[in-house]
Amino acid sequence: MSAATRTGAHGGVERLRTLLQAEGGLIATLVGSGASKEEERPPSPAILAADGPRAAGRREEYELLVEAIYEGYLLHYGTPRVVRVPEADLRLLAGDQLYAIGLARLVALGDILAVAELADTITLSALAQGAGSGELAEAVWAAGARAVGWGPSEEHRLAKQLVCEGSSSALEAMRTSATAVPASP
After folding, report:
1. pLDDT tens column, 7-19
2. Of 11, 15, 20, 41, which one's alpha carbon is 20 to 30 angstroms from that of 161?
3. How far apart are CA 64 and CA 55, in angstroms?
């Protein structure tokens, strides 16, 4: 991973940490003090979304809101980077709150297409996790982030359909979707 990618990922995570502390309330008390072994994580989908032409002029905002939504996903299914929650029920509630924070910021930007893509990403990654495929869930996140930053493609639409159908072709379709060039941004 390049130094620029690490810096970008760390910057988005740090901005999320700052935002949640500023929100106050219970969520602020759950914010961890700093990144531990952040450099060992794969690049965040937030970087991919923010690097796309649809985020032009608002890169940091897109990176922050996707980081919030992705942190919500990690609270539900993985190892969160910012929020530390000792109890399972509270972890799910904190994850839901992070989904809501990110989606509300996206709605404020007026990007309805990205709202739909991220809502689909949340749903499809939950389906993948429910089927026991963390690998598919991560591919869904990569493809969803690409669709947010570059716009959806026909490949992405078909890949989403395959995930919904539980097809054995869904993983490869999502991987292809994550690299497909959309017809128009």
Report:
1. 444 588 999 999 9
2. 41
3. 12
| Burial class for 37, CB neighbours closer than 10 Å (0-12, 13-18, 19+) | exposed
Return the closest-CA partner of residue 50 out of 73, 69, 37, 22. Answer: 69
d(CA 30, CA 86): 9
141's CB contacts (< 8 A; 6+ apart) are 45, 70, 73, 121, 125
CA 7/CA 175 separation, integer angstroms:
25
Query: What 3-state class would DSSP assign to 21?
Result: helix
C-alpha triplet 75, 76, 77: angle, nearest 5°: 100
In 3-state terms, what secondary structure has residue 31?
A: strand
pTM higher than 0.90 for the full model? no
Amino acid at 81: R
Burial readout 166-175 (b: 16 or more C-beta within 10 A, e: otherwise): eeeebbebbb
